[in-house]
Design goal:
This protein has 381 residues and is α/β, with parallel strands linked by helices. The protein contains 9 helices and 17 strands. The chain has a 9-stranded mixed sheet with strand order 16-15-14-13-7-12-11-8-17.
């Protein structure tokens, strides 16, 4: 990955609920300094900045025009991801965004083209793939513990977010649904583990035309459903491995593992890709040291105690001209794969994936002390 860059000054656009998770991480990352926050509602930005000495509350345009800000952390709603990213790139700033990279693959392609022309870097969540869970599984695959990878399963089953979310409308319109909501975690993990995808086959359905909000001031209100709420797909990787993906807002529960990877001499249980950590378990064809039982592998890769925002540190520590591990190429490829699964589901045919991306470099086992310092928040007004 090369030597770390100088400390990057960060400006955040979007002060909604997700910002709290980033603010729990950013102050302790040695490569980053938070200097400004912005929101369409300036009062929200001011409320955030009030708790962060030295961090300024700005309008969105003021933040874009501010020469101190070198990287924009884009925490706006998905529909605004491309617009904000393009503004930042036009201002000569690096960009790191919440998933997805953009609302559509066409918009995402525009972001990447603009960044390439401007010579700036693009990163994108999920950065959970950089944690010890996915990276220990990656190390096991790279070390040949399961032999040649041949298949994977990825499963996410829930009865729907309306049971706990007070405003779940956006989950049930085009651009939402279980695949585009949770799929970035699973597809990004599968590509990190098995490499890029060359084609997909999909099927999809929805069981109800409306949902009932279960909590908050709108409890009992009916909302319409206009997108698929159960999606299955087969991802055909360039390596020849086949991944079976099942994402559902219709099921009650499952005992299936979130992700399993199967090779010709062993199988892995990979922890929830929505988490940074978790046990990785191996079952060997020949039984191995544990006989015919699953053995828990020692943690062997990834950022120990990683949390949301570690991808920003990883980007800042990426050598110029090198693609970040949680980078725009991976985010774009994952988005195109998910769109293609839905296209296939409605067209009833195999769909080829036009993009590819390098399999991201493995993350060596990295202890918190290697990335953290108590002086990463600006002390300047």
């Amino acid at each position: 990955m090369g030597e770390p860059l100088n400390i990057l000054n960060i400006g955040i656009v979007g002060c909604g609920n997700i910002i709290a998770q980033y603010l729990g991480t950013l102050p302790s990352l040695e490569t980053l300094r938070l200097v400004a926050v912005a929101d369409l509602d300036l009062a929200r930005a001011e409320a955030v900045a009030a708790d962060l000495p030295g961090v300024r509350a700005l309008s969105v345009q003021e933040l874009m025009d501010d020469d101190e800000v070198q990287l924009v952390l884009n925490l706006t709603i998905p529909a605004a991801h491309a617009q904000i990213a393009l503004q930042a790139i036009a201002a000569g700033k690096h960009v790191y965004g919440e998933k997805p990279l953009a609302a559509t693959a066409d918009e995402a392609a525009e972001v990447l083209a603009a960044a390439a022309a401007a010579g700036v870097m693009v990163g994108c969540a999920p950065d959970t793939v950089l944690g010890t869970g996915t990276q220990t599984a990656r190390r096991a695959i790279d070390d040949g513990l399961i032999g040649r990878p041949i298949s994977a399963t990825a499963t996410m089953m829930t009865p729907g977010h309306e049971r706990w979310h007070p405003n779940p409308d956006f989950y049930y319109v085009p651009g939402g649904g279980p695949l585009l909501d949770m799929g970035p975690y699973y597809v990004s993990s599968l590509v990190t583990l098995l490499g890029p995808v060359k084609s997909v086959i999909g099927a999809a359905s929805h069981t109800r035309d409306s949902r009932t909000i279960g909590t908050g001031p709108r409890a009992g209100e009916q909302i319409p459903v206009s997108t698929d709420t159960h999606v299955s797909g087969v991802l055909i990787h360039e390596s020849g491995a086949l991944s079976t993906l099942v994402m559902s807002f219709d099921a009650v529960a499952t005992q299936a593992n979130n992700i399993e990877i199967h090779g010709d001499s062993g199988s892995l249980i990979v922890p929830d890709p929505n988490r940074f950590d978790g046990d990785v378990k191996l079952r060997r064809l020949d039984g191995g040291a544990s006989g015919d039982e699953w053995e828990t592998l020692p943690v062997s890769g990834g950022y120990v105690d990683g949390s949301r925002g570690i991808g920003l540190h990883d980007l800042a520590a990426t050598a110029a001209g090198t693609e970040p591990r949680a980078g725009g190429a991976l985010a774009f490829h994952a988005l195109e794969v998910m769109e293609a699964v839905l296209t296939s589901a409605h067209a009833g045919r195999l769909v080829d994936i036009a993009s590819t991306c390098p399999r991201p470099d493995a993350v060596p086992l990295t202890q918190p002390a290697e990335v953290r310092t108590p002086m990463a928040v600006s002390a300047q007004g």
